[in-house]
TrEMBL record, chain A:
Signal peptide: none annotated. GO terms for cellular component: plasma membrane. Residues 5-240, 257-501 form the ABC transporter domain. PANTHER family: CARBOHYDRATE TRANSPORT ATP-BINDING PROTEIN MG119-RELATED, GUANOSINE IMPORT ATP-BINDING PROTEIN NUPO. This is Heme ABC transporter ATP-binding protein. Coiled coil: none annotated.
Automatic annotation (TrEMBL), chain B:
The keyword Nucleotidyltransferase does not apply. It is found in: Cell membrane. CDD domains: TM_PBP1_transp_TpRbsC_like. It holds the Pfam family BPD_transp_2. The chain crosses the membrane at residues 54-72, 79-99, 105-124, 188-206, 236-259, 271-296, 316-338. It is a multi-pass membrane protein. This is Branched-chain amino acid ABC transporter permease. Keywords: Cell membrane, Membrane, Transmembrane, Transmembrane helix. GO terms for molecular function: transmembrane transporter activity.
Amino acid sequence: MEYVIEMLNIRKEFGNFVANDNITLQLRKGEIHALLGENGAGKSTLMNVLFGLYQPEGGEIRVRGKKVDITDPNVANELGIGMVHQHFMLVENFTVTENIILGNEPTKNGSVNISSAAKKVAELSKQYGLNVDPNAKIEDISVGMQQRAEILKTLYRGAEILIFDEPTASLTPQEISELIGIMKKLIAEGKSIILITHKLQEIMDVSDRVTVIRKGKGIGTVETSETDPEQLASMMVGRQVTFKTEKGPADPKEEVLRIEGLTVEDSRGVPKVKNLNLNIRKGEIVGIAGIDGNGQSELIEAITGLRKSKSGKILINGKDITNRRPREITNSGIGHIPQDRHKHGLVLDFPIGHNIGLQTYYRPPYSKGGIINYTAIDKKAEEIIAQYDVRTQGPHEPARALSGGNQQKAIIGREVERDPDLLIAALPTRGLDVGAIEFIHRRLIEQRDSGKAVLLVSFELDEVMNVSDRIAVIYDGSIIDTVLPSETDEQELGLLMAGHSREAAVPQAEEGDNKHVE
Amino acid sequence: MSNRMINLLVPAIAVFLGLLVGAIVMLASGYDPVAGYIALWQGIFGDTYAIGETIRQITPYILAGLAVAFAFRTGLFNIGVEGQLIVGWFASVYVGAAFDLPKVIHLPLAILAGAAAGALWAFLPGLLKAKMKIHEVIVTIMMNYIALHVVNALIKTWSGGGDKTDRILESASLRSEFLSSLTDYSRLHYGILVALLMVVVMWFILEKTTTGFELKAVGFNENASEYAGMKIGKNIILSMVISGAFAGLAGAMEGLGTFGNMYTRGGFTGIGFDGIAVALLGANTPLGVIFGAVLFGSLKYGALNMPNAAQIPEEVVQIVIALVIFFVACGYAIRLFLTKISKKKEAK
């Protein structure tokens, strides 16, 4: 069997920490090889070794059978290795072509020859079916297009082996299926691909083989056709993982949240939430299903006081909290796991202990008469770290140094420990691996079982279907229907999310199924 | 090499390299670097008088450094320390000269007037930033010019067309017979104690109070702070006001301690701008600011002796001083170099 890349017994240490413990990965020519592992398992480290950003302490790398020494990314480029980064390396106000030639500009009489480069970019784009306008500015094109510009950049530089680092993390479902098409096209043209991911379904859909690593160790390589998501998941986390979250029937009691005729505008004055009605009772999880951009963010920002609402009312336990200040609202019994944990959830430069104290620092025992008591804050943080399985060296470690899953666990610990009547979880599992997702779903259900209300917003249909007791479908700023998970399926939900009424979605709508929220 | 060793070595090597390159500059200009450095040393530590004057010079640098560092730690860039210092100087001299009160009331009142004037001068940029998102760098720079010329006009009006204010009354003076006699009748005054007290105050606010927690949080991440229920605008204004108060105190030290009055000025004092370098040299920590201020104050004052004692022209002296500070600011590069060497040694 011909291998284009062989990474044999790679070992990479950072001080006393072994990030890669003798990992072997062999890429065949013309295959899509998935590299699977939890956050922090060592995937990125291994790829950074291959790309020349890190020098390994042990092992060897062979490219097309020849032992090589990849001392920096330029060497990797020359060997035909290209990387499509998760966070794009693009200059926003440059065009696609300008970005592609950046650092390696073709010149003619001393000035940059854009037009010849643009022509070459256009040809490549056509050859691989990428459909990118070489003269479009990066800031004007969608995230999916920006990613294609990144792919073009590697192709332009002659890459034969492409590394995709979590390529679907920020894409819409349509863009994901287009990306899969592009990857297949690349293979058909003779390229080889390493796909870094922790999404099992993607691996099943697109890859030929999978190498699994766990806590820095290579667990093994399997043929995709001979495995299934359950086996991959247990290889990845080292134990059996349940995909279907276990939970008993809901026992809803009195109403906690009531929203009446809410209208919210975005920062440009465009109404994003339109005359929305919703209620949630104690002891139930209500899932908001919808396609990104249908008013979910604005709805949550209005409830939590981060955005003013134009009209309508929001009541918590009967108390009107419309347009109150965030602190008054949180103190009325709301906990909030924000959609963007880096923007709203954490002060990344603060220690994780300070972050856990972010909602309580101003009251005893954490402070008295304006004097803050960091000992008390850290003590509480240590409790939450232990209880919520936050993997960190301790409360003094900067929040930035924690993996996404552990950051999220710390936020959940902070919010749940305040014992709110309503817990709002916005995209709580975005970017997390199966182990962390399972943990977070269990916590949400625990909240429900202890008689609290939970509002879950998610773009993942699986998540909404699995965790919610009731699903409210949001479309164009309104709740257009409410369904029970047991009485619907992904097909119907998908149509509702696209704005079709249920009558259109299911022509023979059953009687007595009319559970509108109003 | 241990980390501690490196931490001690870095500033030492930096100062040495600065002096070395400074020596080359002096040689190239045809002056004797050995004589020059002896003059510098004598200027700083030569006798008790020099030491007293050096400490006096360090005082406003500490306060200006604290002003910049405090704003910086809370995410703001206060370039207006110079202007806040000037209004603080004037306000303290005005209160010191215009009222006749017992010393226990008069001196604190005059000091507070300086702090309040600086705070007020910084309040405006804070307010504009908080309410209208106008960048504080632009506003504070412009406020420096306004401060300079408004204060000049006030001095002229007050003195009936003259170029200096009345002298402050003895009851508002920071002058100290004791410190002065201890240092061979230098102008050393109690201001150094005020400056050191403010170092503790800055540390206390940032590290021990809920206010400091909020100020730092807002500086790092406004969105997360707002989500956590903090008032962003209030914290921005408060940060500027506290920073401006430190700057105003720096001016009060000049007015009530060193000079006892105020002259109309053709240009800036420079202390406020040097405060930026002092803060950065001190990594924006209260203790670091003392280190930065000592370096700045000593070099500035000691250098005055170089033209007299070694016949080196003022211009060359300024280049030499700038080089020393430049190399200290390059500490990061030196640290990198040292870490590399020690790693190579370990590998062998």
